Every structure is written in C-alpha cells, then in structure tokens.
Amino acid sequence: MKKNRSLIILTTLLVGTTLALAIWWTYLLYVFGDKLEVITHSIPDIGIGSNIIRMLKWEASTFIILILFLTISFLIVFFKDHRKTKALQSFFASLTHELKTPLASIRLQSEVITDVAESLNSERLVKLTSRLIEDTANLETQMDKILQLSRLERGGTLNLKPIDLLALVNKISNNYKNTYEVKVVHDNTYEVLGDELAIELSLKNLFENTKNHTESEIVYITIKELIDTEQVSLEYKDQGTFTGDRTMLGTIFYKHNSKKGSGIGLYLIKKFMRLMNGKITFGGVNSLETTLTFNRVTQ
Prior knowledge:
By secondary structure, this protein is an alpha+beta fold. It has 2 domains: 156 residues, no CATH class; 135 residues, Heat Shock Protein 90. Helix content is 61%, strand content 14%. The protein has a 5-stranded mixed sheet, with helices on one face. The protein is elongated, with a radius of gyration of 30 Å.
C-alpha cells in the first residue's frame, strides 16, 4: 500500500512538473516572442528579423513537444513494466501456494512410510524416507520464503499477538535435533509481541544459513530480558566464520562469496522484525552472531 501511494505521488510530481514547464515555456515563447516582434518592427536597427523570431518559436515548440513525448513514453513503459512485475509476483505467489499442498502431502506420506519401515526394521528404507522428509521440509521452507517475500513486497502485514518465545524456539529446534546439537539458554519464559509464522520462518532461515554456510555441529540460542527495557533478545550463534561486509547483511540477494542459498533469508528477517517493531543486529568478531530483539508483553 505504501509503495502504491509513493508511486502515485512520484507520478503526479513528474507529470505536474512536466506540464508546468511546458506551460511556462509556452507562455514565455508566445507572449515575449510577440513583444520582441513588436520591438523589432519599431526598431529595425536591432538586427532581429521576423524569420529569426519564427525560427525560435518553432525550435522552442519542438523542444516542448519532445519533452512531453519523452515523458509520456517513459510513463507508458514504466507502468507496463510495473504491471508485468505485479503479474509475475502474483504468479509466483499462486504457484508457491499451489506447491505447498502437494509438498505437505508428500511429507506426511513419507512420515507414514518411515513408521512402517521402522516396524519392519529396514534401516535403508528408514534412511531414505528420513532424507525425503528432510528435503521436503527444506522445499516447504523455500516455498514459505517466496510466498512471504511476495506478500510483503505487495504491502502485506503481520498478525501481531503474544507469543511464547521459548516454546516456539524449542518447537523449531526440535526439527533440527538430528542435524545439530541445539543448546537453548534462557533465564525465564517470556511472551513477546510478534507474528508466529514470521518468527518461525526467521528461526528456520537462521538454521538454514548455518547449514548452507558453515560446518557447525552446535548451535547456541540465548533468550534473555534486556535490562531496564521492556524488550527480549534472542541471540543465535553457530561455529561458522564470516568475512563478508556486515553492512550488506539483510540486503536482498546478498550472499557474499557463497553459491548456496537464495539470499533472501536475512532480508525477510529484517522485514519481519521491522513490522513487529523489533530489530535485527549482527555481532561477532570472526563469527556471525545474529540478535533478534522483540517487545515483551507485560501484564
């Protein structure tokens, strides 16, 4: 909605400025041109003939028409491109939504097959179905990222409500217990103001970054209340190293030197935290420590 409003304002300014310049130059051209022609007839020695004045009028008129033509052409091309971009966003959003249903079905059927394989003591089948479940979950996460990115870029909002942060962290961490040793440290349980899906996807993005860009086996998550504030921080740290530009983190498609990942994970987290009135910060010396700061729900 904000982008559409900004687009309307910028378009109005462009058209208004162009028309104002055209009207002003037209006024100068014909009003002062006629006066100059009168002066020329009154004082022939000034050396400005009628042909020169007529030529100036034609050149100025051509210049004004050219400016108007270029402005109109620019607006036509711009709005066509804008309409095409919106159509592509809608297409990918619809495609992503359609793909989520069969992916969920595949994952559920894989879990059933895993249970059957375990009852038959077939280690190979259990291993294969476990890998299938993991890959399906990764695809679902990618679909969620694309869907949320498309929704937010079209002006979407979040559904803010009290969230038990520790319970949600334990729920997501449990999904990665076979991949990492996740150590969750907390001094208390806190309810924060946020969107459950946004926080869940943010945590999944952090785990995904660890998987794609590090060889970590341990992940540390620390939840604590910030002193003298009504905020709660979630610090995420793995055993990886980072040598890129920290100021670029959170910029869409920034992946430093890595060929893995989509480059939209941290960008999404940054957008989510802004919409939840929180913030994301990056610390660490050689490592990368990500801190999410939420507003605590007070009684």
